[in-house]
């Protein structure tokens, strides 16, 4: 790996290399397949941990966690074990919290999950479930950009160097035959790393011509007059790609498999409720967002944003592998060893109990 790539890994997406590596057992939940360690909590009954600390983003792509928290659906499955929630605005900080033991389980995007796994030599976390697909768009100023060819020479925002959308946009740029230096963002297209919170203001001021961003930022820009030029879902087979995973520290998974299974059961039931009651679920997510940020999303933002996200228990493992390859190609990541990043045994057990089909780990599960 060239020195530049190493610098990018340190500056952009590496979050745990400076932390002491966790000396955790490499075996996962699925290692002892003959032993049934599960336990369904009766009302008020405590599982093997007093508390489970859960992290997620206050974003619509994390609506499983938002709704599960707001409606008490996760807590219901935990019985007397308390769910304690923390919110994060970026993947690196959530991975750091997981590695330091500040949280146990988290909803997170694929790029930080990949990096969190690789920078601890496969000892820090496991992906144990899916949560959402889609919800990412390229939105542009229609006065400056009429077609994808017009992106060349323009300033396009992404949320953060090396984050999931940044990787996707850099890969798309390369597929157009254009050149961009991944670290500086300079080249045939100017990639401007901008926090999602300030991207709408940057667009209004004219300092960017568009953005490759997740919801609800994309719909916020559309409300300001931007147009959707490309939906990332259209670039993927079956229009599905992972945008949010569920991860757990390997230490917590080993010590409290019953708690992990309860959280997954709550997630599966939350997704089922979301898909059966989209309007009520959208309102619940907005209520939680208001509680966290002080304001709810207006209808012209949340309505189109909500429609573009699919809530799914499937982690869409093959697309995570593809996203890792995109990061390597962009020079943002050394080729990672992802064998064992998934442990889907607890999720598949929950799905079976719910009468649903098992999901696949694309050959990247624990052996």
Q: Could you explain how this protein is built, in words?
A:
- This protein is 39% helix and 16% strand.
- By secondary structure, it is α/β, with parallel strands linked by helices.
- The chain has a 6-stranded mixed beta sheet with strand order 2-1-3-10-4-11, with helices on both faces. It has a 5-stranded mixed beta sheet with strand order 7-6-8-5-9, sandwiched between helices.
- Strand 6, helix 6 (164-175) and strand 7 (190-193) form a beta-alpha-beta unit.
- The chain is globular, with a radius of gyration of 20 Å.
- The two termini are 28 Å apart.
Write the layout of secondary structure elements.
Elements: H1 3-13, E1 51-56, H2 63-70, H3 73-78, E2 82-87, H4 91-100, E3 105-108, H5 110-118, E4 125-134, E5 136-140, E6 155-158, H6 164-175, E7 190-193, H7 199-205, E8 210-214, H8 217-223, E9 227-231, E10 242-249, H9 250-255, H10 257-276, H11 278-293, H12 299-307, E11 309-311, H13 317-330, H14 345-353
Parallel strand pairs: 1-2, 1-3, 6-7, 6-8
Antiparallel strand pairs: 3-10, 4-10, 4-11, 5-8, 5-9
Helix pairs in contact: 2-10, 2-11, 4-5, 6-13, 8-12, 10-11, 10-14
Strand order of the largest sheet: 2-1-3-10-4-11
Number of helices: 14
- Decide which structural class fits the backbone: alpha/beta
Strand content: 15-25%
Number of extended strands? 11
What's the main sheet like?
6 strands, mixed
Order of helices and strands: HEHHEHEHEEEHEHEHEEHHHHEHH
Radius of gyration: 20 Å
The helix fraction, in percent, is 25-40%
- What low-confidence regions span 5 or more consecutive residues with pLDDT below 50? 1-38
Based on Cα principal axes, name the global outline. globular
- Average pLDDT reading: 89
Report the end-to-end length measured between terminal Cα atoms.
Answer: 28 Å
């Amino acid at each position: 790996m060239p020195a530049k790539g190493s610098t990018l890994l340190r500056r952009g997406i590496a979050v745990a290399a400076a932390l002491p590596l966790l000396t955790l057992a490499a075996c996962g939940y699925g290692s002892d397949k003959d032993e049934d360690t599960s336990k369904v909590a009766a009302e008020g009954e405590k599982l093997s941990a007093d508390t489970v600390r859960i992290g997620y983003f206050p974003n619509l792509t994390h609506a499983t966690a938002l709704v599960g928290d707001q409606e008490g659906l996760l807590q219901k499955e935990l019985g007397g074990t308390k769910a304690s929630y923390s919110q994060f605005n970026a993947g690196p900080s959530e991975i750091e919290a997981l590695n330091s033991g500040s949280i146990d389980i988290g909803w997170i995007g694929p790029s930080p999950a990949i990096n969190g796994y690789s920078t601890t030599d496969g000892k820090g976390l496991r992906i144990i479930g899916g949560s959402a697909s889609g919800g990412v768009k390229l939105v542009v100023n229609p006065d400056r950009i009429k077609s994808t060819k017009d992106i060349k020479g323009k300033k396009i925002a992404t949320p953060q160097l090396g984050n999931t959308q940044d990787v996707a946009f850099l890969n798309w740029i390369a597929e157009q035959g254009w050149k961009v230096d991944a670290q500086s963002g300079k080249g045939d297209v100017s990639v401007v790393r901008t926090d999602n919170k300030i991207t709408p203001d940057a667009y209004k001021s004219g300092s960017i011509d568009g953005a490759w961003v997740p919801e609800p930022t994309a719909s916020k820009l559309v409300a300001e007059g931007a147009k959707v030029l490309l939906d990332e879902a259209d670039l993927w087979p079956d229009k599905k790609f992972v945008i949010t995973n569920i991860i757990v520290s390997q230490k917590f998974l080993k010590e409290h498999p019953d708690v992990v299974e309860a959280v997954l059961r709550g997630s599966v039931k939350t997704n089922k409720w979301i898909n059966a009651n989209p309007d009520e679920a959208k309102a619940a997510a907005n209520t939680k967002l208001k509680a966290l940020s002080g304001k709810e999303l207006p209808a012209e933002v949340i309505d189109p944003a909500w429609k573009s996200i699919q809530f799914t228990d499937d982690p869409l493992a093959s697309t995570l592998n593809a996203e890792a390859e995109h990061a390597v190609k962009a020079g943002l990541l050394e080729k990672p060893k992802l064998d064992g990043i998934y442990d889907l045994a607890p999720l598949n057990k929950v799905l079976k109990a719910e009468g649903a089909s098992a999901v696949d780990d694309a050959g990247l599960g624990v052996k």
